[in-house]
Amino acid sequence: MIQPVILCGGCGSRLWPLSRNLYPKQFLALVGEKTLFQETLARVAGLPGACAPMTVCNIEHRFIVAEQLRSLGLAGEIVLEPAGRNTAPAIAVAALRREESDPVLLVLPADHHIEPREDFARAVEQALPLAEEGRLVTFGIEPTRPETGYGYIRGGRPRGPGRHIDAFVEKPDAERAGAMLAAGGHYWNSGIFALKASAFLRELERFQPEMLAACRRAVAAGKTDLDFIRLDRKAFEACPGDSIDYAVMEKTDKGVVVPMSVRWSDLGSWHALFEAGQKDAHGNVTHGDVHLHDARGCYLDSRDKLLTAVGVRDLVVVVTADAVLVADKDASPRVKELVAGLRREGRPEVDSHRKVYRPWGAYETTDQADRFKVKRITVNPGQILSLQKHHHRAEHWIVVRGTAAIVNGDTELVLREDQSTYIPIGNVHRLENPGRIPLNIIEVQTGSYLEEDDIVRLDDVYNRLAD
Question: Containing domain of residue 320, as a range?
């Protein structure tokens, strides 16, 4: 049996402003109609012997994961990390959750682009016997160019369809990357693994006993919450953080690399996304409402408004509702440095888009100034917000589409298009969509403090009271 384990913990800051902390790149459709997470799910769904996927994700992303699974008609266990601790603890948690049945864990990052699926499946099939015998298998991408943006694996003596791992090589300079390509036997480090749960736990016990002990406590004290498994916060936050490469793979003598001949990218920068995209006659990759004249070799993405460009070369231009990025294409990996500066300044654009998704739907701030804020709220059919109140703001709701069932203090009412209600400061209130079409309302907030942490939840069907 194969247990797919999808790791969803990254934030993808190099793909800002599309990728944000609360809605990172794995949940975005960047190279096709499906999101990167959904493409990863589809990639493993057809593998012979594969069971329902297990997803390990940040607690803040749980409803996004659940919705994107649901939209594909898939079910699966969703394990919630209360804090990021890198890949080794995440894989340890997955192994502990399956310790009794001891399947082969097929561990994949949620944000990679791999084509074609048939060659991916063939490499997994080759790796399975090695994993069954207790080897820790990683997949090495056969390099096509001297790439300085990836780590490498140097293969040693043959082991079945793979090779024993001689060494992991950090991202090289151009000269060394060229030498490794010419020498052969070196592979890009894909970050994909096939390993028996028991084999990984044995090696983790050898090299990182403190990490394993903390993960055991986090799993043992974890709780089921709706469709989620919440790891114990205190135990998991005490866990040392490290990647599987540093924690285990660079130390073990059980490591094997199986070559994978696919078109692969970790989509770690706008330049990488440009390389993976479909280009027009002038070598441009465009998404959204883009109009060009005499532009060449550019990546241009606008999902909110018309983007035009004239006489430009080798640029990245990305437009969202609240931010614009302009970068030289070759400098696009440095966007991470830009985002770090924005974070130090406390800019909210680092964390979330203007449109924020919730388990019941979404809201978007359309206007804001001193003592007022205007939001456009969408509630999906059959969904309901928490019963709540605010200490510092009043709200005025106007229904512009659909039907709203509302609790407002001691009053229950049903409003339809072009009807409204006023909610004074401190009034307990709730909003529900009892209809079959999305409910759209305009919310006007007024008061001295208008941030999201001025929400006192009294009851919530999504159990966010536990957060």
Answer: 279-344
